[in-house]
Structure formats: C-alpha cells, structure tokens
Amino acid sequence: MSAVNLSHSGADAHAHDEHDHHDLPWIRKYVFSEDHKYIAKQYLVSGIIWAIIGGLLSVLFRIQLGFPDADLSWLKPLLGEWIQNGKLDPEFYLALVTMHGTIMVFFVLTAGLSGTFSNFLIPLQIGARDMASGFLNMISYWLFFLSSVIMMFSLFIKTGPASGGWVVYPPLSALPQAVNGSGFGMSLWLGAMVLFIASTLLGGLNYVTTIINLRTKGMTFTRLPLTIWAFFITAILGILSFPVLVSAVLLLIFDRAFDTSFFLSEIYIGGEALHHEGGSPVLFQHLFWFLGHPEVYIVILPALGITSEIVSTNSRKPIFGYKAMIFSLIAIAFLSFLVWAHHMFVSGMNPFLGSIFMFLTLIIAIPSSVKAFNYIATLWRGNIIFTPAMLFSIGLVSFFLSGGLTGIILGNSASDIQLHDTYFVVAHFHIVMGSASFFGMLAGVYHWFPKMFGRMMDERLGYIHFWLTFIGVYLIFFPMHYIGIAGFPRRYYSWTGFDAFSTFTDLNQFISIAAIITFVAQFIFIFNFFYSMYKGRVATANPWRSNALEWTTPINPGHGNWPGAIPTVYRWPYDYSKPGSKEDFIPQNVPFSETPESNFPNEVDEI
Amino acid sequence: MLTIEEPKPTFTVNPKRFLLWLFIVTIIMMFAALTSAYLVRSSDGDWLKFDLPPMFMASTAIILLSSVTIQFAYWFATNNKMNLLIASMAVTTILGLLFLYLQVKGWGQLVDEKIFLGGRYSNPAGSFVYVISGLHAFHIISGLIYLLIVLYSSIRGRVNSTNLLQIEMCTTYWHFLDLLWIYLFVFLQFNN
Ligand code: HEM
Ligand SMILES: [Cu+2]
Known about the structure:
The complex is a heterodimer of chains A (607) and B (192).
Chain A: H1 26-30, H2 36-66, H3 76-79, E1 83-84, E2 87-88, H4 90-126, H5 134-154, H6 184-213, H7 226-257, E3 268-269, E4 272-273, H8 281-315, H9 322-335, H10 351-379, H11 388-411, H12 413-419, H13 423-453, H14 459-485, H15 499-502, H16 505-535, H17 601-604
Antiparallel strand pairs in A: 1-2, 3-4
Helix pairs in contact in A: 2-4, 2-5, 2-16, 4-6, 4-7, 4-8, 4-13, 5-6, 6-7, 7-8, 7-9, 8-11, 8-13, 9-10, 10-11, 11-13, 11-14, 13-14, 14-16
Chain B: H1 15-42, H2 55-78, H3 82-112, H4 124-155, H5 165-190
C-alpha cells in the first residue's frame, strides 16, 4: 500500500537536475563525495576509529588506576618512552585523560554522532534529494578529517599531546613551562579544535537550512520525526555555542603565541616571576562552559531523537506526548545556555550568583524528566519488539535517568563543594552523557544499518553486545559514585600516598577489570558491523515496519534518494497500531483518504 | 484514482540566503563572546584607560561610505545599468581595501601610544582592542574576496535584474560587516 505513487499535483518542489552519478570521477565518488549518505558513512567510520582509540586510552589509564604498583614494562612496545622503569609517566597519564575526553566528547559523540545521523537521516526523513549544499557538506567532513589528522599526530610527538584536561583551563594550558603537554601538543590541540569547530559549524548551517527549506510537500513541522527535531535543535545549539569556543580558543592562542595576558595574571613558575598582569583565568572558564554546557546537550540530544524514533517503532505505539517531546527539547536547549556556571561553583564565584545558577540548573530536571516519563509511557503496554536497537534505546533511558539523578545532587551548590572534581562527577557524566549518548549512537547504527548498507546486522551478536555493555557500564561507573563521595579527586595519577584512599584499592581494581571487559566486548560490535556490511542477510525494504520516509526509498538508495518523484507526506510519523487499521503501521506517505477505516474525526476533515 | 487530499503547504526560504544568515549568526556569537569577555574583565579593575586611535574614526567613515556604494551597485544591478554597477563594485572594493589600510595605520598609532598587543608592557585592555579589530579585519578580508568574485561576475555580465541573488547576498554580508564594525567601534569607544 505504501508503494502507491502519489505524484499527482503540480511540479516537484525540489526539481533536481538529474546529473548522472556514475559519470563522476572516482575521486568525487569515493573520496570527496557530496552525497549525504556517503558523507554520513565517512563520519561513521571515522567516529568508530576514534572511539577505539579513545577507548584504548581509557584502558591504559584504568590499568594505572587499578594496579598502581604493577610492572607495566609489557606496555613498552605500545608506549615506548612513556614507560620508565616499568611505571607509566605521570605527565603522560594526564595526557591520556585529556585526549580521552577530547576524543570522546568532540570527535566521537559530536562529529561521529551528529555527523553520521544528521547527514544520513535529514534528507531521507524529510524527503529531500540531498543536503542544501552538498559542497559545504563535503568540506565539513574534510575539515573534520584534517582536524583528526592533527589531533592524532599530537599523540605521537615527543613532548606528548595536550595534558591540561579536556577543558584546557589556563594558566596550565597557556604556559609551555607548566607541563610538557602545554608545549607543542597544546598548540596542535588548539589548531585541531579550530578546524573541528569550522567543520561542525558548516555541518550545522547545512542541517538547519536543509530542515527548514527542503522538506517535501506536506512535511510540516508537526509531522517531522523526533529525530529531525533533535538534529535541528542540536544544530542550532552548535551554531550558537561553538563560536564562543572559537573566541576562547583565539584568546588562548594569543596568550600562548603573542604573550598577551587575557587569562594570565601575576604568576610564579619554577621560582621565576612572569611579566603577565591583569588577566583572569576564570574568564576562560566562563567562555569555555558557555560552550561546554550546551555541548553536553549537543552530545545527548541526537541520541534522544534517535531513540525516540526507535522506541516508538518497536513498541508499535505512537510516541507518548509528541509535542511535549518537542517542547522539552526546546526547553532543554534554551536552559542549557543559562546554567554554565554550575561547573564553576567552587571557582570563587559569588555565592548569591551560585544560587541563581543552581536554581536554573535544577529547572533543567523538569524537561528532562518529561522526556524520561514519555519514553516510559511509550513503552507502557506496547507490543515491544526487542531488536538490538530497541535494547540499546531502553538502555539509554536507564542511563539518562540514573545519571540525571546525580546531576541534581551536583546541581546543589552546597553539595557540589564536596563533590566537585571527584569521581562522583566522573560517574555522573559518564552515565548521563557518555554512556547514554553512546547507546543512542549504537541504537542508531543497529536500526539504520539496513538502510545504510542494504544488509542486516546479526541480531544474536547484537544481544550479546548489548548485555555485556549495559552491565559493564553500570559495573564501571556505579562504584565511582562511592569513591567520589569519599572525596577521591579526579585526574590524579596515583593516590597510594593517601591513607584515606587506600581502602578503595579493591574497588578501583574492580572498575578497571570491568572497563577492560567492556572495552573488549565492543569488538563484537566492530566485527558485526564490518562483517554484516558484506556478508549480512540482505535487508527487506522496511525491515522494522516503520512509518518514516527513509523506508520508502529503494533498499540501496542511489544518488537523489528516490528514483521517481519524492513522496508526499500526509500524516505524522507515529501512526502505529492505530485503532481500525489493518496493519499496525501507516507510513507517512499514505493519505487519509486511503485509510477511511482508521481515521479520527479531525483527520476526516482534512481529506 | 481516489481523490486525495492536498498536502499541507510547507514554509521555505532560499537555502543559499538562509545559509548566509546563519553564517552571520555565528559571527555575531563570536563577537558577542569577545565583547562580553571584555566587559567582564574590565569590571575587575586594574584596567588601562586610553583613547582609540584617531585613524579608527577615518576608517569608520570609509566603511560607512562603502556600504552606500554597494547599495548603489545593487540598485544599478536591478536597473541593468552595467557600467555603473561595475564602477560601484570597484569603488566598494577599493574602499574596503582602504578600510583595511586605515585599520593597520590605527594599530600603528596604538603602538606609538605604547599600547601593545602582547609582551611585558601590554594590558588586556589594549590586547582586546587589537584582537577584536583584528578579527573584524579578518572578516573584512573574506568580504573583500566576496566583493571581488561579484565584481568579476558583473564584468562577465552575470549580474543583472534577473540574476540578483549573488549581489544581494554580497550586499547583505558587506552591510553586516559594516554594522558589526560600527557596533565594535561604539562599544570600544564607550567602554574604554
Ligand atoms: C538534571 C540534569 C543535570 C544536572 C542538574 C546536571 C548538573 C551538573 C553539574 C552541577 C555538574 C558540575 C559538577 C562539578 O564539576 O562539580 C555537571 C557536570 C557534568 N555534566 Fe551534568 N547535569 C545534568 C545532566 C547532564 C546531561 C544530560 C549531560 C550530558 C548529556 C551532562 C553532562 C555533564 C558533564 C560532561 C559534566 C562534567 C564536565 C567536566 O567537568 O568535565 N549532565 N552536571
Ligand atoms: Cu553543565
């Protein structure tokens, strides 16, 4: 029924010059491609490679944390000079933590997530031939690639990569004398980030423009799948917040290269008094977190969009509170610009100002819980189909909830005095951001793999992957709350010198072992991904019996996505199990006039 | 065939124009960050007070004038007055270059006043002026490249009353850079 071609009225709004894709030279087809689907896959594969590297770095520092007295000589083939006398170099430990954070937050969960799914799904789900500007889209990927090369290169230089934490606070990051990593490694970090931001902005401009201007006939804003809404709000967040990071990075570059004093004031280093006067390191924190907080939502919102779509499809029920979901996305995005100082409660901020930021921070819990509630209400009494994508989506809901709860504890400025910069914060954001967003990404890969590669991923491996990862995440991060409450600070190379913390040796060992197992379990996914690409079961046109437009394309959509006219949209994407309907789903391109048996009174009027 | 309901109309704008507007938003955010940083820092005390270089007055006048000439260029394009169009585009480009030259001169005057970008005798008050005007100058360079592209198109006869998009976008961008400078100039003037 969904195959009826409904191109009856008027000219195609998005008339597309049908230049033949196959005539393009090889390099423009497989390297500098302007096809959104291909660019999406480029982002995905880059993201996977970065995720493996980022994960490997975390395993290295977990070995140090879990087994501080162990002889690490066996790591010499990998780390070379960074292992001295069987011990990990303490400065390199800091570099590992820094690069792990940078890679995961920016390269995997921003570029890898938004880059893959915004690119892949926006044109397919709104009914467009491609992005508004394929050229800018291609540039966006290659800027990201260049940025990746520079960041990767910094891992191999003699003085080591940046090591001031992913937040690169000055003065540590501004003074090359401070730590080896603040030398050339930091310059590379800054250069890579400027390119990265340029890439993200180009991508974001394209996403917003495409969503506003290239929707197919009938695809009004209230008929957009929640995925698209999430990508849309995410892109706007990026457009508003990343330029602020550019400014911060620019001023930092001036402090480093031109000897200015934006973030530096009276400092002694190694007994020597520096000439800097009048700068303010706290100013950097303000600029950084004005981006940094929206950035955490840039990371999570696409995952929320992806999983909303998957949960509704696999519960065979309309998403509960579609408009409330949109409203809470917008509210979260808006509020995320007003809470940045909750990262700075202990920076000497006026306590009254602290209370205001505390109040604004706690308000975010409201739209966040609306989302959590709606997920659960969608699942409630649905005909749940536990595909791997569905399991990962439910996993996301669990993480979003348990991590959000600790956010409320941190958001209270009084309790944050104890908890700031401890493993409690680490536990909070790894559950709510890291794991939730990763699960959203994995869910997206399992769900849209058939559309990307025309084949299915292996379900059984998917289930094993899910359970190992889901349990692993809680085993790793749950104990960290206790260590954090005990006051154990983050970013410390070793803590055996403090009696207070020796009692946590076992727990730290436990966490490290869980982390290593969970990391290894990811290779099940990697194998499944690449194996299924070539050997997987061939997909059917609409394997999940979903309503969204992407499943009306051919199994392997070519350039321009639909061979004929673009389908017209007549309804929202969540008509699952509609009373009266023969099938338990009605795709978006089916007019109401074809479904008299299931129309609601207000829909009858639309015919 | 069945009678099928008409699809609901969707709202659209020209994507290219829209991209430009979004791009402008990113630039606004960048300067909003810098000027807020300036305000936050200057309220902390220990802030050097000095006058902006007189050359910045001249450059402000020049860039205002260039906004007028590009607007003329646009009108000439809508009326298909090709030679006048080319002339006004050329004048705008020259004024833009002149603006850059005057900015550099202005930095020279700052140095003469012993206001330095960096080093032992610098103060964030001075460094901010350099960085803010410098970043603006960087965008002026991008605007100049755009002007040259449109100038070339006009010479090749590709800009006329039926092909207005390119010059229209260029005009928008140039006006924006002009307005941005006026804002920065007034901001720095009043907060110094
Ligand atoms: C109810 C919702 C939330 C509240 C009230 C909240 C509150 C906070 C607070 C107060 C901190 C600062 C802790 C400190 O450094 O002392 C923090 C850290 C953090 N939060 Fe949340 N949070 C919430 C949800 C989220 C979400 C949804 C994400 C990401 C998707 C997130 C990501 C982060 C990250 C990455 C950090 C740590 C950054 C760092 O210091 O490296 N949070 N959160
Ligand atoms: Cu935050």
